[in-house]
Amino acid sequence: MATSITPRGQQHVDRLERIWAERPGLVGWVTTTDHKRIGIMYFFTALAFFGAGGVEALLIRTQLIGPNHHLLSPAAYDQVFTMHGITMIFLFVIPMTTGAFGNYLIPLMIGARDMAFPRMNALSYWIFLASGIFMYVALLSGHAPNAGWFDYVPLASKQYDPGTNIDFYGYGLIFNGIASTAASINFIVTIFKMRAPGLSLNRMPLFCFAFLAVSFALLFALPSLSVAALFLELDRQLGFHFYDPAQGGDPLLWQNLFWIFGHPEVYIIILPAFGIATSIIPTFVHRKMVFFPLVALAEILVAFLGFGVWLHHMFTVGFATLTTVYFAAASLIIVIPSAIQLFAWIATILTGKPEFKTPLLFIVGFIIYFMIGGLSGITLAAIPFDQQVHDSYYIVAHFHFVIFGAAVFPILGGMYFWFPKLTGRMYHEGVGKLSFWLTFLGTLVTFFPMHILGLLGMPRRNYTYPPDLGWSFLNALETIGSYVLAVGLVMIVANLLISYFRGAEAGNDPFGGDTLEWSTTSPPPPYNYAVIPTVTSAYPMWDKEDREADSRRLDRGEGLLERGHETPATTVQDAEWDEILSMPSHSVWPAVSALMLAGIFSMLLLHHYWIAFGFLVVGALVLFRWHVKGVTA
Amino acid sequence: MLVAGCGKQSILSTRSPQAHNIMLLWWWMLGAAVVVFLGALGLLVLAWFRRGTAGLPFFGERESAPEAMVVMFGIAVPVVVLVVLFGVANLYLIRQTSPPSPRSTAMTIDVIGHQWWWEVRYPGSAAVTANEIHIPVRTRVNIVATTADVIHSFWVPALNRKIDMIPGRRNRVLLYASSPGVYRGQCSQFCGLQHAHMSMYVDAQPASQYRAWLANMGAPARTPSTAAARTGEQVFMGAQCASCHRIAGTPAQADVGPDLSHLATRSSLAALTIPNVPSELAAWIRNPQAIKPGDRMPDLGLSDNQIASLVAYLDALR
Amino acid sequence: MTGTSAGGPTRSVTAETAPQAAAVARQRLAQPNGWWGMALFLCAEVTLFGTLLATYFYLDFGAHRWPPAGIKPPSVLLPLLATAGLISTTVPMLLAVRASRAGSRGRTAWLIGFALIIQCGYLAGQVLLFRHDLRQFSPQRTAYGSIYFTMLAAHHAHVLLGVLLDIGVLWHVAARKLSNYWLIAVRCVALYWHVVNVIAVLVVLTQLSPSL
């Protein structure tokens, strides 16, 4: 531990500092393979997209503040609401949870010094960034996707949408999917193979279980979206007929493929939030999670069951009753693992001694909104009712409580929670609480009235509405709520930003956290841990003797791995120390490879197929060079 | 009250047994959800009051108590509630609200979605209209919902659940009104630029009125009786109007836009975007893109005189 | 516990020669990270083909005639023979992994080279068949053509990628060294081919399903 390092220990630390040093300045960021720096880049990139998506949301709400407003033209409105969905899902929540939180925290939590594939990790980031820029070029040039994030054909076919708008969508999502696939492979291998000795699966933090489940879900869900987007582009660019009923295709093929991806996606969005909640709750409640094994099982089960319910997005397309009933039953079954987790959190808070500090407040907000979103979700499994409110504002209310209330609130709470770890500074608690209440009330006022609007018959995705249907007041109220919400979110960012410069010193473990990341310095050194920690329970920070043993081992020079970028690899189940890996260090090739991919997709979009092929060949050469050169020793 | 009864497009002010039962299902689900929500919220409030003490009241700090709580509220209670909900909604109510079997009703209406209006046809009759569906009251009507272009969704909340209109499929939905009245419906699947302006009325009429209406609709359009109207007819046939619209009994027989044979009987224009009064009709013909941007109807560049006579002609097509 | 002491965990990157690498491989308790990475990547690829095959049958079941009027059902013999040839390469790839784990650099290289020749022959034959099919019917006329050619092209692209992987590994193992890293690479490439071979069987059965 930093506070009690002896001179001999300091020698070892200095040596590790030299070994793990990266290149200085901007070059250092472009070439970095440090999971923490990559996590920080993910964080700021995702935050920027959150800002963009938020501005789009405010534009939508401002347009709808009253009937027959014309802030946005219908064409602009369609682009804005489509980009709002794409941004929040593909460019904010997923990169923020898996990219930022997962990248930064998982190696720390499992006591590793880096991800299993550090350069592929950098590659994932650069591809994500490039795909985000790719899609925002579309918006800035006025050609953003405009058929909704669900992009149903034939509205998205060449016949009804002849511009490049939809091509930005099709290529952009395939592009983005490459990053997510690579990232999820990386997470699974990291979690399986890189855990500190003794950190067997049954001692793994629930945060890591959640991210493991998410990674598997992404891995199996994304191909369906990529194939759907591929078919879409083949139809649009080359005149194929996958979705054309006149030539034997079927527009419902798109809907099936999209939702086979799209429903697991919902759990991909929300499971990391569960993980963050199960990190924050024990810390502030000062007790272990109630029913740890059942909660771990429930997390995995949710991800698994999420693959069997996609048809509930399509109850109104006219399938046979039996088919819809089957999928409604499957959807209801998911309630059980969700309810298990919900009541495990509540029971933990109830039976512990909760300190309602800002991070825990956000988790309580999350629990409340997850209940609202979950209960409205159950009503949608009643097929006749779903068929009434489908594609009305009731649905918008439901999924915003799930996605904003339940997925984003833990992200916000997590930002406060791990801020001291990332910066070594404390955030301002009073401003933190105020920002919580603003966000909480803003969310309630923005999204709750949407339930009622849906019941009053207001359909989704309308750029305006008539004054005589009783929708005006609630819409105005929602718009006011959205501004309150925006103020709350800006306050969070401002609080963290100012605290970064002015905050009090936080120390290693300001909250009495239970997982390993709190044992290292704040911010952690590039090698994370001078001594590879040894773990004997699921709450390693609450095992004081183990941590004291770690610092004694530093003095004795044991378990240091200081011959290079070294970190242990352990066995999958029991985390027995298997071998010592030498990890690759900084490299420019990941960023260059992402640039080549960007070239390929841009040229495909512009129909320069030979130039795209040129980029492919150069990209392959880059990969080859990276590979042969990058192999150490 | 805020929720009940305001607006003509609400699932909470219903005029059919189907929509009524779905509404009842909603109120019951809401009641159960409120109980569950308040119960869980109560536990959180209790946690706040007991934030200084570990364990539960009565049960103390035994770990089996919270675990039993998780099993009870996380597994046992949901299973019971969900089984009941599944039975009521997905085994019973779903049958009651499903489309009628073709044999159980003599009455079928074809509704065809277009960007961005509704074409309505009455099989067995020459009647064709747009954006207004007349049905006889207290009759089970079999709506066959199809589309001419992209996916739309047919939804009249006061009467029954919705059904999508999908290329290559013939979907059906039951429409039944227990009392006469006009019920608003709207496209509820995003269908492009003017998705917001794709609404229609269902006009449930007593059987005799309905038959009279249908007979008029099936008849050819009235020949113009005034000079202005006759000029208007010439403008209609001479300008591009006739290349998209049909007027029964005249050379105009195109089917791109709505059938105008009895336009004057309809209460609105452009799928409920504006009321069907002469001034609005003139404004619509003058510059449809200003009223419904992106609509398929182009600005025809007609003079004010031509528009006035067109309005006179169309306004007489009762 | 500094690493290399007897009985402790090994520093696997220090295994530079084939015998050293083989010793490390035999000592390892769990599968190496690279193997896991490839296995998971293949999970995604299998799902991708699952989606393609599911689409084929989805369109098939929704069609009145499959293949549509005017398109002959595919001929069976050549694709089946080619696929049989391809899946036979599973044996040399398995043996190559064994040879590498036995520390035999030369045998590893020869076995991969042998498999590579068959795989290249398969690819060349399939490209000819593909061009032949393209002259018979077009992906731009019917949904049948669309899924038929997309599915086959996706599989041929995977065979091409496998051939490139083979060449990379073969060049390195034959011309340079069989270190720990490249031993894992041999195992990954072999795993890749096993899965691509299984997919080949599924794809060819789907492709020929109207004639079977």
Commentary on this structure:
- The complex is a heterotrimer of chains A (about 625), B (about 325) and C (about 210).
- The two termini of chain A are about 30 Å apart.
- Chain A is globular.
- In chain A, strands 1-2 form a two-stranded antiparallel ribbon.
- Chain A has helices spanning about 5-20, 25-30, 35-65, 75-110, 120-140, 165-195, 205-240, 250-285, 290-305, 320-335, 335-350, 360-380, 385-390, 395-425, 430-455, 470-500, 545-555, 590-605, 610-630; strands at about 565-570, 575-580.
- In chain A, helix 4 packs parallel to helix 6, helix 4 packs antiparallel against helix 7 (about 205-240) and helix 18 runs antiparallel to helix 19.
- By secondary structure, chain A is mainly alpha-helical.
- Chain B is elongated and about 95 Å long.
- By secondary structure, chain B is of the alpha+beta class.
- Chain B is built from 7 helices and 12 strands.
- In chain B, the strands form 4 sheets. Chain B has a 5-stranded mixed sheet, with no helix packed on it. Chain B has a 3-stranded mixed sheet with strand order 4-10-9.
- Chain C has about 210 residues and is an all-alpha fold.
- Chain C has helices spanning about 20-25, 35-60, 75-90, 90-100, 105-135, 145-175, 180-210, and one strand at about 10.
- The radius of gyration of chain C is 21 Å and the shape is elongated.
- Chains in contact: A-B, A-C.
- Chains A and B meet through helix 4, helix 10, helix 11, helix 12 and helix 13 of A and helix 1 and helix 2 of B.
Observed structural traits:
heterotrimer; B: about 325 residues; alpha+beta; 5-stranded mixed beta sheet; 3-stranded mixed beta sheet; 7 helices; disordered N terminus; C: about 210 residues; mainly alpha; about 0% strand; elongated
Strand content of chain B: 15-25%
Main pleated sheet of chain B: 5 strands, mixed
Q: What is the CA-CA span between the terminal residues of chain A?
A: 32 Å
Termini separation of chain B comes to: 40 Å
SSE diagram, text form:
The complex is a heterotrimer of chains A (633), B (318) and C (212).
Chain A: H1 7-20, H2 25-31, H3 35-63, H4 74-109, H5 118-140, H6 165-193, H7 206-238, H8 251-285, H9 292-305, H10 321-333, H11 335-351, H12 358-380, H13 383-389, H14 393-423, H15 429-455, H16 472-502, H17 544-556, E1 566-570, E2 577-582, H18 589-605, H19 609-630
Antiparallel strand pairs in A: 1-2
Chain B: H1 17-49, H2 64-96, E1 107-114, E2 117-121, E3 128-130, E4 132-136, E5 141-147, E6 152-154, E7 163-165, E8 171-175, E9 181-186, E10 199-205, H3 207-218, H4 227-238, E11 268-269, E12 274-275, H5 278-286, H6 288-291, H7 304-315
Parallel strand pairs in B: 1-5, 4-10
Antiparallel strand pairs in B: 1-2, 2-3, 5-8, 6-7, 9-10, 11-12
Chain C: E1 10-11, H1 18-27, H2 33-62, H3 77-88, H4 90-101, H5 105-136, H6 143-175, H7 180-208
